[in-house]
Write a structure and sequence with these properties.
Order of helices and strands: HEHEEEEHEHEHE
CATH architecture of the largest domain: 3-Layer(aba) Sandwich
Number of helices: 5
Strand order of the largest sheet: 5-2-1-6-7-8
Strand content: 15-25%
Largest sheet: 6 strands, parallel
CATH class of the largest domain: Alpha Beta
Number of domains: 2
Distance between the termini: 33 Å
Oligomer: single chain
CATH superfamily of the largest domain: Isochorismatase-like
Bound molecules: pyrazine-2-carboxylic acid, zinc ion
CATH topology of the largest domain: Rossmann fold
Radius of gyration: 18 Å
Number of strands: 8
Helix content: 10-25%
Shape: globular
Length: 242
């Protein structure tokens, strides 16, 4: 009798064209099978900017270490999108805009709770530029976010008012993208919000853990992974890609 192994069954299941983005939760991948991004996949490189690495205004611990990892996997992708946190001077997410408030405290804005940050990623400054060693010559779109003075945007898809879209979902859908691979800074803020919003918009989502670094404020990293995995985002390592 011709019996298929569990591994073969899993691979057939995972590669079956019958399972579109709606069945994303049910797709399984054999532990030793590599993930190969196809023409309908996009790499999203979130906020790998000077502000978020050593020497920047809001440095993420070891933030610069994502650069070689992202450079290594980028050639596996036919579609690449980068994002830039792109704030006005005096932005509502800056502690300096709220008298008596300090960075990393919370404040209530019109749209809800907002963590306050040091002034960072101000439009057009060197601090807001992409890291100089990032090599993404084939990147097709740079999406900027957080450019409205009164509204933050951790997510590359939707601003913090949870109403205003950036246009990224429409762009990706118009180009036939079904799956996104999320990398960059910071795991527990802009990466996590981007990954969850990508799921909400109907994309399959992989988050490449070793291509991300976290801020980890009061347990935010563990909470972010729980939320991402709960939303159906898959946690993988760069070595899982081919
Ligand atoms: C980010 C805090 C404030 C991020 C951006 O890119 O994760 N975090 N602005
Ligand atoms: Zn910001």
């Amino acid at each position: 009798m011709n019996r298929l192994s569990r591994r073969e069954l899993l691979q057939i299941f995972a590669s079956s064209a019958a399972f579109g983005a709606s069945a994303w939760h049910w797709k399984a991948r054999a532990a030793d099978a590599k993930v190969k991004p196809g023409g309908d996949a996009a790499l999203i490189v979130v906020d790998v900017q000077n502000c978020f690495v050593t020497g920047g205004t809001l440095p993420v611990k070891d933030g610069e270490q994502v650069v070689p990892v992202i450079n290594k996997i980028a050639p596996m992708f036919q579609n690449i999108i980068a994002t830039q946190d792109w704030h006005t001077p005096g932005h509502a997410s800056f502690a300096s805009s709220h008298p008596g408030k300090k960075p990393f405290e919370n404040v209530t804005l019109k749209y809800g709770q907002q963590v306050l940050w040091p002034d960072h990623c101000v439009q057009g400054t060197e601090d807001a530029a992409l890291h100089k060693d990032l090599k993404l010559p084939t990147a097709q779109l740079i999406i900027r976010k957080g450019y409205q003075k009164g509204v933050d945007s951790y997510s590359a898809f939707m601003e913090a008012d949870r109403k205003t879209v950036t246009g990224l979902a429409g762009y990706l859908k118009a180009r036939g993208i079904k799956t996104v691979f999320v990398t960059g800074l910071a795991t527990d803020f802009c990466v996590a919000w981007t990954a969850q919003d990508a799921r909400k918009a109907g994309f399959g989502v992989y988050v490449i853990e070793d291509a991300c670094r976290a801020i980890d404020l009061n347990g935010s990293l563990a909470a972010a992974w729980k939320a991402m995995e709960g939303a159906g985002c898959k946690r993988v390592q760069s070595s899982d890609l081919a």
